[in-house]
Queue: 2 jobs
Job 1
Amino acid sequence: MNFDDLIQGFPDLTTTGLAQGSVYALVALGYTLVYGVLRLINFAHSEVFMYGTFAALWTWGLMGYDSNSTRPSLGMALLLILVALVVAALFSGGVAVLLETVAYRPLRKRNAPPLAFLISAIGASFVLAEAMGALTERRQQGIPSILPSTPLFTAGGWTVTPVQLMTLVVALGVMFALDWFVSKTRFGRGIRAVAQDADTAALMGVNKGRVIALVFLLGGLLAGVAAVFYNLKQGNTRFNGGFLIGLKAFSAAVLGGIGNLRGALIGGLLLGLVEAYGAALFGSNWTNVIAFVVLLVLLMFRPTGLLGESLGRARA
Amino acid sequence: MSERKPLLEVDNVTLRFGGVVALNQVDFTLYEGEILGLIGPNGAGKTTCFNAMTGVYLPTEGQIRFKGEQVSGKKRNKITKMGMARTFQNIRLFPEMTALENVLVGADAHNTTSVPTALLRLPKHWREERRSKARALELLDFVGITGRSDDLARNLSYGDQRRLEIARALATNPALLCLDEPAAGFNPAEKVALLELIKKIRDSGVTVLLIEHDMRLVMGVTDRIIVLEFGKKIAEGTPAEVRDNPKVVAAYLGVPDAA
Amino acid sequence: MTTEPIKQPRRGLHLGDRFRALPKPARIAAIVVGIALLYVLPLKGFYENLGFPIPVGSGYLPFYTTGSDMANVLFQCGYYILLALGLNVVLGYAGLLDLGFFGFFAVGAYTVALLTSPDSKLITEYNWLESPWPWLVTVPIGVSLALLSGVLLGWPTLRLRGDYLAIVTLGFAEIIRIVAKNQDWILNGDRGIPSVAHPPGTWSDGSPVFGILDWSPYYWLVLTVIIAVIFLIRNLANSRVGRAWIAIREDEDAAELMGVPTFKFKLWAFAIGAAVGGLSGTLWAGQANFVNSATFSLENSILVLAAVVLGGAGSIGGAILGGFLVIYLPEWLRSVGDVFGWPHSVDVFGIFRLDTSPTSLRFIIFGALLIVVMIYRPQGLWPNRRRAAELKDRQKEVAPVE
């Protein structure tokens, strides 16, 4: 236990934790959306995220930036990030919808038991990861340096890097947009209706199949956004890199109350912070263990999470 | 009814889910060897009462005693072992097991073979296996589905599935058998046969609690009847007394029953 | 015309029925011959005399894995079959999705490595042991520790809902792997533990039975263990224990209300599965000579899952078939691929190089098969008799409509 590190680094740890937590939160939303509507842990969501990281990497490659390039000007950097955000979000969204169509929809039609969905999801996750592995020769791929890692500003011991600031701002923006989408629009009403009672919603004329596809698409889009910021922070990606982020994002979703959108946000940020503080306390080798312990303890003592499970009942 | 030993005592039981009061100070006693009917309109709290008795729900207030022993808070499999068995309103057999195996699971309630014994096929395993199998076949015969022992439960007809559920419950060797709407979905001829079966069960020394919707069935077979409405007991007595009770007529018999 | 579908039941079923119709002595004889045949499998001569046409000069033998040593491939099949048999108890019988199953394999393997290697830190640094123990002594210890870790993991997690159980066990195995990889104090991280002992025994000329030149004895050993394990698991399946497991799988609440102590039997399923997984690990360590964290990757857990699901969850035959297929098929295809010039990698648009070796593609293929099987054949390739019977009944029901 190293309390000195924790106290001295507290401001830095907080900003790091919040930025990392935003990434978890964005991915957690994908789990929560699907779970809220289908009561299904979308096991392959981690791969949807991982494909986003590669989509962003390839986009930058096509625009002439690889891990050996010199850092671009600020204007170019913003353009690179913007394009990557759009491409990665669409690509991940597409993968998510494809996943739903191939691995889940046929099972839904056959009214398969929950275990079948879970096994199919694991199969899909495996196919996606290994296909990327076969394509990338199972090597880690470097991400071009796009934003400077020097602090953007320093105030009273608090330093914030451009990546951290941008991650937090964009993540919060995206989540408010999602909140608005689910609570205010016609599509959002459909999602809430199916989440509450799928059969009744179908009787009332809600197209269940379309709502489910939409939910997967939304989850994919968010995972794509998360992927870009993960790349910027991490500096590399690999074909099996989704797994750990997926496990943590799932923990975050459970922490906040799976099926609850605001819960995913809070759970994500909280997990990011706990991890950052925990790493300072116990050493960074144990970072990955911390998230898992949080999940295990939580499931045993409060499986419904901090805010409770409900997509239908909560406003968002 | 002459004075007999109480088997099950439901003592001022109240059960709340959040703000909803599902059972409100329900109070009755079940005596050994009788057939007691528990009736009431839909949503009156019959199945809830049932679930509280079998340990699925914990009462908010009050006590449930079985053979003088407190039931609430006990593990569900322990309650079964104490001698209370039940069937389900919507049939819940083990669909991928044969009829015989379904009954064997019930008979296993009193067996003690566990992993070491089974692994090494010790004599106890064979003894229990032989005894249970004989008992199970006997029960399949008793409920009238002798020839179907090797069929998967899912492939039995609806009526046979109901009978199999009763056989499975009887296999746990209960002092009290709770039947949750056993006649649901039956035609008149099947109902008559069921009536006979229930009497036969009682005559074999098992006390029966019958939750039922079909008034004629209840009137025909029960010794006493409890009437629930909105989670409260509104009447208790012999079938004749209950039939003439104005409260019951208003609450229940006044409503034309489709069943 | 309408009875056509009944007259042509699936071939596997037909064989099974025919087999059961045989008189008992004939059945026993058939089983003995079948088992004897299994012991012959690693011998190259067996394949040379099979009588299939062989392309001249190819070095190819039918069913023989020319790309790698056949006995070694069979040994790998063997410990995967053991793993599949263990997971089949947990998943197939009790219906619990345990995705960290390979973790128990790791417990078994590491136990053997730590106790039998002269380079183990238990000896070199901590002086807990004076000298390495023989392999045979460490096997029961490894199995017991695996069983114990099954109980320890099951105790808190078996109260969780099924989908949570899956993710917790998955996370658990991964965390164990990360810890094994990162820490240095006992398991030695990526560098691992070398010089793990082999099983005992010497031939009449003094050379060890379990050496490093001929893998066949390892296969014979694992085959013998498999037969014993099948016997024991069948004992459990056809008893109160097996009935309780299936009742729990079918309807846990109803099972409990019928007097089944569900938690106890779920824990037993977990523990027995873990013990068989651990046993597999001890056998593997006895052959591998070297144990490190890289062996226990997630892919292997999923491969075992694929084996059970493809073969048919809840069926011992299915677990055997599945365990065999996931290892043997890619290896055999590699031999066949070499004969017909299957490329090892392919350029895609000149940007990517797709790794097309069967051992790499097998993960993709078996992952895809998991989806396909769940959709089109959830009972697996070799379903147990119960499920097969159900299928037949369904055929009967469908037939008149056609």
Job 2
Amino acid sequence: MCLAIPAEVTKLLPDEMAIVSIDGVSKEISVALIEDLAVGDYVIIHVGYALTKIDPEEARRTLELLRELSAAGEGAAS
Amino acid sequence: MSLSFRNEIDITVWLAGATIADVAIKPRSRPPLTRLFAGKPAASLLPVLPRLFSLCSVAHQVAYLSAMEAAQGREPAPARLRSRITAVIGERLTELLRGLFVGRAALDGTSAAAVRAVMQASALLGGVDEAAPEALHCEAIAQIRTALGALGISSEAAAFEPGSALAASVAGCSGKLVAQPVVEPSFLTLADDIEIVARLLADGAAYSDAPDLCGRIPETGVWARSARRKEMSSSSGDPAARLKARIAEIGQLCAWLDHGATDLEEGVVASYRLGAGKGAAAVECARGRLYHAVALDGEGRIVNFEFLAPTEWNFHAHGPLVRNLKGATLAAGRQGQDAVRALVGSFDPCVGFSLGFREAGHA
């Protein structure tokens, strides 16, 4: 059950690596499995690899959903 | 607002000298989907699933769709069921192949291109409710065959070629424990489905967070499927053996997608009606058996929704990984720790994991 948390590409690095921002946290990942990636694109990552590219609107809706789930989870825990 | 999900498993190995005395597993957190979707139309959850799950999203869609139909007293037409199975098998092949490299081995240019080609070709095989036209299906299979060939994987022999990069990877697998405990075979099967889905609906998250079958916590996934085919007498398997089983299955899946005349295995997709408005389904995906169960009210709105991912069995606090580690003897230093890491990785969790080592008695 790997949650698909969208990450925004903030910098492309040599050797098919990139810096992404996940909910405000920066992380270096491999983008070897994705072609034609640019800064500003959104990707779904798994254990340090970008698996798929998604469009920004899809990323926005997914982040919105995850925030709703996060809030629901916190409500249940409190 | 930040996301509060813990999307990683924490594993702590307690050592008594060179022997693993105990293993503690802290699971990832699970999203409260029922809480968010209760009262909404059953179909409203379907488009959300591929947005929510980055791995096995086809399997999640097929599981939910099948459970929803069972709850509504409907059955898919044979052609539709066939297209769903094809989509699940295509996704399973892709996930297994990608998992040979992601987080495991260095991904060189040739391997990355081959994995990308399989990911693209698999998407051509059709969605959960529509098969690809025959010509497109054949084209996709040809692309998959070519890509697997570039990696040295033969679908005819369901194996990898000597001298290939994968063969070197298997040969160089650093995951050899000095001694691994003999583990009684215990594998999840189709015959377990009914008990599991009934418990899933009755006990909800309390069950899906830590499932069992009368105290038994069986293994699921590639190794379990391989064991069932070979009728293994032990469920122990070192990382190299598990890697070989994965490669063999990739070849078998490709051959099935190509010929597809006979069933690959029983219950790739199985659905169950559990009473009025209640249904469940099981889907055999890359990491093992995935379950969805749903209860609907008289107007087709969600009253309850539960799912159980394969990782919950394999990474259960008393489950297959722990049984395979507890009592094992490690080589000294980094070599021993690498062997444990390789074994954990070979159980293929659907999330990342952190691995720590502690001396027993120094808690």
